Structure formats: C-alpha cells, structure tokens
Amino acid sequence: MPVPGPGYAITARVEVPASASAAGDLTVAVGRVGGVVTALDVVEGHTDTLVVDISCNARGEEQVREITASLEAVPDVRVRKVSDRTFLLHLGGKLTVESKVALRTRDDLSRAYTPGVARICQAIAANPDDARRLTIKRNTVAVVTDGSAVLGLGNLGAAAAMPVMEGKAALFKRFGGVDAWPVCLDTQDTEEIIRTVQILAPGYGGINLEDIAAPRCFEIEARLRTLLDIPVFHDDQHGTAVVVLGALRNALRVVGKTLSDCRVVVCGVGAAGSAIIRLLRPQAPGDIVAVDVDGIVHPDRPGLDANLAWVAGHTNTGRTAGTLADALVGADVFIGVSAPDLIGGAELATMAPDPIVFALANPDPEVDPAVALQYAAVVATGRSDYPNQINNVLAFPGVFRGLLDAHARDITDAMLLAASAAIADVVAEPTRSFIVPSVFDPAVAPAVAEAVRGAS
Amino acid sequence: MPVPGPGYAITARVEVPASASAAGDLTVAVGRVGGVVTALDVVEGHTDTLVVDISCNARGEEQVREITASLEAVPDVRVRKVSDRTFLLHLGGKLTVESKVALRTRDDLSRAYTPGVARICQAIAANPDDARRLTIKRNTVAVVTDGSAVLGLGNLGAAAAMPVMEGKAALFKRFGGVDAWPVCLDTQDTEEIIRTVQILAPGYGGINLEDIAAPRCFEIEARLRTLLDIPVFHDDQHGTAVVVLGALRNALRVVGKTLSDCRVVVCGVGAAGSAIIRLLRPQAPGDIVAVDVDGIVHPDRPGLDANLAWVAGHTNTGRTAGTLADALVGADVFIGVSAPDLIGGAELATMAPDPIVFALANPDPEVDPAVALQYAAVVATGRSDYPNQINNVLAFPGVFRGLLDAHARDITDAMLLAASAAIADVVAEPTRSFIVPSVFDPAVAPAVAEAVRGAS
Fold first, then answer.
1. Which residues of B touch A100 (CB under 8 A)?
2. Which residues of chain B are modeled with pLDDT < 50?
3. Looking at this predicted complex, what is its ipTM?
4. Is A386 known to be catalytic?
5. What residues of chain B, 146 to 205, have a C-beta less than 8 Å from chain A?
6. Counting C-beta atoms within 10 Å of the first and last residue's C-beta, which end of chain B has fewer, N or C?
7. Does A107 touch chain B (CB under 8 A)?
8. Is A113 a catalytic residue?
C-alpha cells in the first residue's frame, strides 16, 4: 500500500469549539484513518469557535473521504470544505512568459518593436547564426511530447500531457536557468512529429523529447538528430541513463568493484533500458544481460524489433537464454526500469556478493525496497521516501545549460558520460545510502553543465 | 528624409578633457551632423579627464558614422566605443519563461511534478475542457508566423522573424496580461502551416497570426477557424481594421459626418485593406471604393484573385474604373494601407469638404503628413512622430484578454466592431489631433477586453 504522499495533499477548513484540545482532536481524527498531518493553521478565532485549516497528505481519494468523515465525526466539528492542494497549485497553469525589456515609453517600444526591431531582423536574415545571439533561441528549449506515454499513465494525448511538460519547464528554469516551453503535439504519427519539430526548430536552442512511447521515440530522436542543427535529447532515455550511470559509478565505489568485473542485468528494454545499455557499453562492463517481458534478450529469440535486435547483438556475450531469475544468478548489478514487483528476496539471494540493486519502476519498484535492503549492498529507487532516489532532475537542467552555453549542435556520448561522472563526483564520500546528491544540491547543475561544455 | 528615431539609438563612450565646456562641445558635435542627443552621463571623473556616455538617435548607419567622426573631430576627445542600443537590448532575446509555483522542497516537486501531477493529467484526459482551467492554455496565445512578410521587410524567413514575434509577445504581456509565445515556422507551404498550427493548438487558448503574406494568410486563417476550437486572429488584418475603424468613428465625430453619407476610398487590398473593407461593410458606409496598384477594383477588371473578386463584388456600387486620383474626387475618406508617396496636395484638393486622410503605409505614408494636414480635416498615420498614430497595440492585447476571459472558441465581427468602438470611446472628446488614445492609456485594453467579452 503506498505511503500517503504530498502528491495527494488536501487542506480541510473546519469549525471547531474553542478548546485546549481542539488541535489534538483534529490531528487524532486524521491519524486514525492513516492520514499524515503536515500543517495546522488557525484562520479565524472567535469567542467560542475557531476556524482551522488542517493540511494532510493522503494515499488517494478514498482516504480523503475517510479523513473528511473522521473529522466530521469529532463532536461539534463542522467541515466547511476540503481543498485539493495539488489542484489548487495547478489552477491557471504553472508558467508565465515575461518580457525582459521594459516597455514604459515610446522609445522603449521603438527599440523592442517597430521600427527598431527591423534592423535586428535584417541582421539575422544576413547572418542566421546571429539568432543565437539576438533572440531567445540562445537559452530556450522545447519540451516536446505527443502524449503517448505520459508518466506511467500511458497514452493520454497532447492536452493531458501539458501539466507534465509545464512542470518540466518549471524544473528547467529552477535548476538550470533554462527557458523551456511545453510543445504538446496533437499527432502520434512519427513522420508528422518529426516534420513538426523540424518546422518549429528555428525558435529553439535545443529539443527535449519527453514521454513519447517506444519504439517511436527512437526513430524520432535519430531522425531529428540528423535533420537539426540543435541538440535533441530524449530525457526518458538519456536523462535516465546519465543519472543511473552516475549512481552506479558511486555504488561500485561503495562495494569496491570495477565495472569491467561486473555482470549487469538490465530489466526493461524500452526507452530507458536501451539508453542505459548504450551508455554502459563504452565503459566496458564485464557483461550486460538485457531482460524484458519475454525473458533474456538473445539473438536467436524470435520477433526482435530493430531496437531489441541491436541490444541482442551488443549484450549477453554468453548467449544465455532464460528468465529474469536465471539472469540474476551470480549477477553483480540489477538495474530495473520495467514493472512493479517482479522479484523478491529469493532471487536477490542468488546474486554475487554485495549486489547493487536499482529498482526504478515508478511508483512501485521491481522489488520492495525494504526487502532489497536485506540482500543488497546498495539499493536505489525512483522514490523520494527511500535513500538514493534516481531522479532525472539531476541531469537534464545541467545538461541543457551546458549545451546552450556551448552553442552545441549535437549531443555526444562523451557529453553524457561526462555529465554522469559529474553527478557522481558531487558526492565526495559515497556511502550505501548516499550515492547520488540531493536534487536540491546547488552544486549539481553547474557541475553537469561544466562537464557537458568540457566534452563539447 | 526620415527623422532620427529611437529605433536607431546609439551610445558613444568618449574621453573628454575635464572642462566646463565639455558637455556642450559634445552635444554640438552630434547636432552638427543632425543627430538628436537623448542623454549624457558622466561615468568616470578624473582630475583632468572625464569619461562620458552620450546617447543619441540617428537616421541610420551613415549618420552613426558621421556622428562618430564629428565627435572625434572635437579637440582632445577620444571615442572609446559606439554601442547600438537597439542591439544591446536584443542580446539574449526579449522573453523569459518563469515558474508560477515555488519549487523549494520535495513536497513542492511532488505537487508540481511527479507524482502529484499525474492526477491533473488524468483529470484533463477525463474532461478535456479542464485544460483551460488547469494548464497555461487559459492565458496563452501563440504568435504564429512563417516569416513571409516581416514588417515591411518582406520574406525574411522564420529565424529572422523571431525578434518581431518576441516583441509582440512582450506587448501582449505588457498591455493585456496575456502570456504569448513566438511560433516561427520554417515552412511557407499553406497546408503545412495549417497542419502545424492544428498540431500545436492544444497548448494554446488562441492563435495570433502575424506577418504572413497575402493571399496565403486568408486561406490559413479561414481554414484554421473551421478546424480549431480556439479563436484565430490575423493581426495584420483584424488588428489593423479594428484600430482604423475606431479612429474613423472619432474622425467622423470631429467632422460631423455619418458613415452612411461617406464615400470611403481604401487604397491597398492586401491583408489590412481587405479586412478594413470587410469590417466597414456591416456599418453601411455610403460607398467603398477599393484601389490597388492596378487602379480601382471593379468586377470587370481582368485577373482578379479570390480576394479581389470578393472585394469587387462588395464595393464600388457605381462600378467605376480608373486611377487612385479618379477615386479620390469627391471622396470623404481616404484609408491608405499600401505604399509610400502615392498622392499629394493636388489629389487631396479634389476630395469632398473636410476630408479624412489615414495614410498608414509604414514607415513612409502614402502622402506626406505635413502636406495632408494642409488639405484634410483629420490626418492619421502609422508614425509616432505625428498625432493620431494608428497602432495595432491599441487592439490585440485587449482583444485576446477578452477572448481568453470569455473562453471564446471563435472571433466574430460583432466582437471586432465592439472592440473598435471601445477604443474610440476611450477618447471622451475627440479633436482633429486626438482621435485615438495613447497606447500607454491604461483604460484601453480593459475597455477592449470588456467589449469583446460582452459581444461573446
């Protein structure tokens, strides 16, 4: 059962009798049904009644109803209304567009708009590279989706993907100082997506592809990289790979192993899994074994698509076949980017000594983290309620900061590997429960940006 | 010869001997070659020298060179550098994207991004209209161009159009509180433009088409209006028409005529001219006579395209043919949206008593405003250095403010006419030299928005 989290945060406004026990009665009522109180504010005080806002985290809608009922069951308490704080925060969207130039006088208008702006247009027409100097292209990234794989929710379409892309844009600014703009495309045709991004590209210094379903995402990225003179980065692939490899670098330091001696099992060969494998290979691991819903990937398996065929040809030097459990026997590293609850302690017990377990399926990992911690030397998840959260926010803001600063036209594996090492090296002394820095560590994005610039 | 304007503003940093006459010597040197000094700042003071920034407006590059040479010719003056203030203002572009939500803690991230954002996505997927409530769609307009008719400069393409679209977006925010985003399309194919805008539309509450060449702009607008459930507004057409009709309303009040008694000559039948004619017709003018480079438009003229054929069929009740000069004989109103220097005093003298002359070609009007003022009762231009500047900034911010507030799905002529009357009525007592409010009049956009909402 998921822990009550801030993603489902409510504030109940209640009238209570003015008594010394009022606050206690309310928190007890919330706690009784499993809610977690996060704040309590008295908003009105009268002689015999108080109006109190009690904020709490819940697991879901059912628990919100239980909390409301539990509050109403307290004698003399009246619940005025229950607000969903996540919805409140989203009212009107999460981004604004602001002018960097003052428009106070006619002279201001004459410079920022007509007639003065004409000379800027002419300068760019004469020298197109000036667009990176004289327009927002210099610092602006398109966050592009077709809404086909929104979070773990599936194919919700363009409009419903907007809140994620807006959030991503907000993170770009917060952590990388990058101006990012949500571009939600009302088409899921590969050719139309490619052509549309190409048509839009003049206004942007980079393209961040997001939540586009595999295998479409591979072709879209590959084709755009050849068509455009700005970097194209599919965050679900490369952002994840960069952070995973950074975390792995530090996890190996903790257990005192080197990658060339390790067998790495990658479970899930979609966007993230494929990118992790492609970025692992240049670092010469002992072996990589890829596993998907049909078991271990090997060249003789029927029905491999282009992506799986490439993976089969570049992993699994022993040409083994079998199940995920088979793959784990004697393995040093498990990296799961697949589905919840695939393995348990029995499988982990068969791994090599001091195994490293990254169970990154969201929101529910491949293995219960509490179980994994009993068997593995290092455990990482995608969740914020356990140590070692693998979060793409560690990568993409700094990666694009570096790309934009370098006026980069392409992204290379060398840049991604440098970014990955930079994230790891922010942690001076990695330990079992501290292999990646906090997403709020202000050193991360500058270090990543510097690494990307240095590799460009 | 154009007047030195702030569109070409420079700042020269010069070293001068510390003397009482230094400032005077510099301003004289600038004025000697026709520059207009706008500011003088001492940035460093030493015992025997001063470093001074002298800012001035110029007519163009040649005059900048003359000003520089004139400054250098002053004894003991050294010019360190000359900066172009318009270019300085454009460095890095004119817009930023900012987050409206704080991202200080893990809880903030959990609500604005994963996992909390998932519920917002699901809500929109279940009820697409919620996108107007829970995303930036509510307040966001795409400023779309193909770069085919950038200002009066012609077909400069997508990248070179960015500074204009960024400026437009800045004006949208400054005057209408609208978040606007530049969308510069690297295609000039009508079908691709239409399809691309359709694909992008989910993220926007309205589409402002800009600087797209006629006749392509007519088909793009018409088709998008049928395809999309958000309003589509081609500013070069309707923005201009709204402001022109507002100005005309007040000009008629000044001369004491009613539109139904007037013959109106519209010179130029591109985007602006066509839209002016289409918006004039519901107000039942005495007659409209349209004129283009081939003379008066009438149904028997060979080679009329679809737009001109429509105009021919809906104007010129007398079926006259001839030149612009022929059209002006006895006309009450001249509205020029065409080309510089087409007429002079001789033609204006043939108009009806108290003629109204709107000479809106930019930057150089159809008739010299100084000449026009000798013959016409009311003169308006597109220039800021004469009274009665016809500026689209009076219309588009308020129009979209009203459309977004009303959650409008279409734009109607009734809305445009209401907006036009609202602009006029901000001027309580119109006079010969005050028929439109200042673009900085804070009453304009709210009045226009209210008029549009009221007509929706």
1. 92-96
2. 1
3. 0.92
4. no
5. 150-153, 156-164, 166-171, 173-174, 179-187, 192, 195-196, 198-203
6. N
7. yes
8. yes
